[in-house]
Design a protein that fits this description.
143 residues, mainly alpha, 7 helices, 58% helix
């Protein structure tokens, strides 16, 4: 299990992407950045093996405190909170999606969504699919 002694500095999208980069790309990057930083704080606080039970016991308030301790804004969405839990699983060496939640139904639903990679940002789609979340794509006609 990796041991963290200090938090790494992870640049924001503004520091990484050139001016004019589409907002959804920057937003997705910053969401992943925030989830990794908060997960690292929580990982250090767990002080032991990461289990599904230890992750399930992490409350929204505890995530908010972890964010503040890392000088980050508190997670503003359930997607970000789910990504924090997913990052904790990764840090702890657990499967990316809890097996009792993923099941065959989620895998079957995810297969067609993977084909949509050419229509939406593939990095955001892969993050959502990795979490085992359902995907609904709504076409919006161009103006």
């Amino acid at each position: 299990m990796p041991q963290l002694t200090s938090l790494p500095s992870i640049p924001t999208a503004r520091d990484v992407f050139p001016s004019g980069t589409p907002g959804h790309i920057c937003e997705g990057y910053n969401r992943r950045r925030k989830s990794r930083i908060i997960a690292m704080v929580l990982f250090r606080q767990l002080n032991g093996p990461v289990t599904e039970e230890s992750i399930a016991r992490i409350t929204d308030e505890r995530m908010d405190r972890a964010a503040r301790s890392a000088n980050e804004k508190v997670p503003g969405s359930e997607l970000t909170r789910s990504m924090i839990r997913a990052e904790l699983r990764r840090l702890g060496g657990l499967p990316p999606v809890p097996l009792h939640q993923a099941g065959e139904k989620a895998a079957a639903a995810a297969a067609p969504a993977r084909q949509l990679g050419s229509l939406i940002d593939p990095h955001q789609l892969s993050e959502i699919l990795r979490l085992g979340l359902p995907v609904l794509v709504v076409p919006v006609p161009a103006a």
